[in-house]
Design goal:
This protein is an alpha+beta fold and about 110 residues long. It is built from 2 helices and 4 strands.
Length: about 110
């Protein structure tokens, strides 16, 4: 009988110690679509625009990648955003992450 009580006591003690060692994390809640508010009002291309319209509006990209895959997807990189094309039509444009203390460069080139 003594061994069972000792074993139960050890298990109970180990359980209580392990429960007291659990970590606690802070939860930070951000409203939907507010994560990039610090970027300001950077103008970026709209879905459906053609490559020629993009060059006329924003100038030549810093870098062009692709095309690759089927359908052919091409990426153009500008200072503040990247544009993804299917053939020569914009399918998505994405703002680039910037440190909070970096200046916004939303001037068309």
């Amino acid at each position: 009988m003594g061994n069972k009580q000792t074993a139960a006591s050890i298990v109970l003690t180990a359980t209580l110690i392990s429960l007291s060692l659990t970590s606690h994390a802070e939860t930070i809640l951000l409203p939907i679509a507010s994560q990039g508010d610090y970027l300001g009002d950077i103008k970026k291309p709209a879905k459906g625009q053609k490559q020629g319209q993009i060059v006329a509006q924003f100038g030549e990209p810093i870098q062009r990648s692709g095309p690759s895959g089927t359908p052919p997807i091409t990426r153009w990189d500008y200072g503040d955003f990247s544009i993804y094309f299917e053939s020569d039509v914009v399918i998505h444009s994405v703002l680039k992450h910037r440190r909070l203390n970096s200046p916004v460069n939303d001037e068309p080139k």
